[in-house]
């Protein structure tokens, strides 16, 4: 059975230039479908988790979520009525689980043939973002993940061929997708992270002996495995850093002599950080520097290291504890000047890459290890992403079927790094 479908998943939905572009695109898609004289409509699913604090407060806790009636689209969502999309069959649905379990994942599925994993939401913020497009059997796994979570009634009984899942030590389906630059297939692993609405995960105010440890999800396990088993270098670009497990893993990498480069933000989503973690990124960064300067000898940190090594998420962690710590570089993203923005855009004209002229924060979620593996997706290095939010990431390894390097990971980092030119404030450099 074949059909034409499209689905967009976003965490946040708000009136914005992005929404206007989305509406324009949907209208064009509808017109193209009518111009083709097709009797079938294109099924389009818009799925989001949050549009306001009030919406989350009164949102149904049912896993079936809430489907917005078409007569409410304009008032509540800023969408035109369905009469303006005659070539589309449009469904709009939201899911949220109190107190803090947003569905933070962001992805776009097109005809079950392509998937795009952006870092951005349908929102007004002008942040530095990125997206990666993937094709191949892994697209079906993303579709299965979406169908299981969002439960679109029209698709429950559809039959289709599913690829066999190769076994993975990281508990995620492994497939390959084609690197468009090299023309080679890359080893790719889908990293889902289900939401958890339990109070033991959500409330940081609970005594530590009552709090649950973060779930050993494919995304959590993979990030810890990569960071703590790095050989030479770890690069982390994250909007926020409040996860204790991520912090401890970075400390362990530095103890093992691995160089760490961290890029994050100041004063980003402060109320959310305080509500979900009881601390701020700046405080965690200052603690990391303090621990680094005293050689990670603090009793509290040593206890946290022992707990991390004993956890189910790190069954194979290696601790070399080199005499010399790895180098540590920490930078904060800052809004570029107009002159810097123009220079960066001019310098990247050939590739079409560049920074937003008014980007106030970096919203990219990226971890690179040894220039051989990269994790991209929706997950931050904060407490919410590691414990309560639903996330979706992808691990891309820089090797083809024969185990040869393609240089794809290095190219991806060069592209992102080029856009950071003129936007970084060095805060600490060992």
TrEMBL record:
Start and end residues of each PLD phosphodiesterase domain: 99-126, 358-385
Entry-linked Gene3D superfamilies: Endonuclease Chain A
CDD domains in the cross-refs: PLDc_SF
Membrane-spanning parts: none
PROSITE patterns documented for this protein: PLD (PS50035)
Name this protein carries in UniProt: PLD phosphodiesterase domain-containing protein
Annotated source species: Lithohypha guttulata
Taxonomic lineage from the root: Eukaryota, Fungi, Dikarya, Ascomycota, Pezizomycotina
């Amino acid at each position: 059975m074949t059909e034409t479908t499209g689905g967009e998943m976003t965490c946040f939905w708000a009136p914005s230039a992005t929404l206007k572009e989305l509406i324009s695109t949907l209208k064009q898609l509808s017109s193209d479908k009518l111009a083709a004289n097709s009797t079938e409509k294109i099924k389009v699913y818009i799925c989001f988790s949050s549009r306001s604090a009030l919406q989350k407060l009164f949102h149904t806790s049912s896993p079936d979520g809430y489907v917005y009636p078409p007569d409410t689209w304009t008032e509540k969502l800023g969408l035109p009525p369905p009469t303006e999309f005659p070539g589309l069959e449009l469904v709009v649905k939201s899911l949220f689980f109190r107190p803090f379990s947003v569905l933070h994942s962001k992805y776009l599925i097109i005809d079950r043939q392509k998937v795009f994993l952006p870092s951005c939401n349908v929102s007004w913020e002008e942040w530095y973002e990125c997206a990666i497009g993937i094709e191949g059997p892994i697209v079906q796994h993303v579709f299965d993940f979406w169908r299981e979570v969002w439960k679109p009634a029209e698709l429950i009984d559809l039959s289709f061929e599913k690829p066999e899942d190769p076994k993975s030590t990281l508990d995620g389906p492994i497939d390959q997708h084609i690197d468009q630059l090299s023309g080679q297939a890359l080893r790719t692993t889908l990293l889902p992270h289900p939401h958890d609405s339990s109070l033991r995960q959500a409330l940081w105010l609970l005594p530590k002996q009552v709090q649950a440890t973060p779930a050993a999800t494919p995304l959590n396990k993979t990030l810890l495995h990569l960071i703590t088993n790095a050989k030479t270098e770890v690069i982390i670009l994250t909007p926020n850093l409040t996860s204790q497990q991520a912090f401890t893993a970075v400390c362990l990498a530095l103890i093992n002599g691995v160089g760490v480069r961290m890029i994050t933000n100041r004063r980003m989503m402060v109320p959310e950080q305080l509500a979900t973690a009881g601390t701020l990124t700046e405080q965690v960064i200052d603690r990391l520097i303090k621990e680094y300067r005293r050689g990670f000898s603090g009793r509290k940190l040593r206890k946290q290291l022992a707990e991390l090594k004993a956890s189910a998420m790190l069954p194979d962690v290696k601790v070399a504890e080199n005499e010399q710590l790895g180098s540590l570089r920490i930078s904060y993203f800052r809004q570029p000047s107009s002159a810097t923005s123009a220079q960066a855009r001019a310098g990247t004209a050939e590739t079409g890459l560049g920074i937003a002229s008014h980007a106030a924060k970096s919203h990219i979620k990226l971890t690179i290890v040894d220039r051989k593996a990269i994790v991209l997706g929706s997950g931050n290095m904060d407490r919410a992403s590691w414990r309560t939010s639903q996330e979706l990431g992808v691990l891309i390894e820089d090797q083809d079927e024969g185990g040869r390097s393609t240089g794809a990971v290095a190219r991806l980092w060069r592209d992102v790094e080029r856009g950071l030119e003129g936007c970084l404030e060095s805060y600490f450099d060992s």
